[in-house]
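We keep the chain:
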Amino acid sequence: MINSYDGMRYPSIDQLIEVTKSKYKLVVGVAKRAREIEHGEDILITNPHNKRSIGIALEEIIEGKVEIINAVETEEEK
């Protein structure tokens, strides 16, 4: 039996795209966050289901602990 937290199946790509609205933004944001975790940044969730930095980054995004923003929008707001 496969549960909803089985390896990289959690969170699902469909859930993540709902949050980020863009596969490209998701990939770039997850890569950046995973590197931060690998370089010693604190993990923002308790008891992550994944052990790898990419999986943890995905969980942080789906739980709302990390927000992926569009850099162009950020520059326009300044």
Summary: The mean pLDDT is 85.
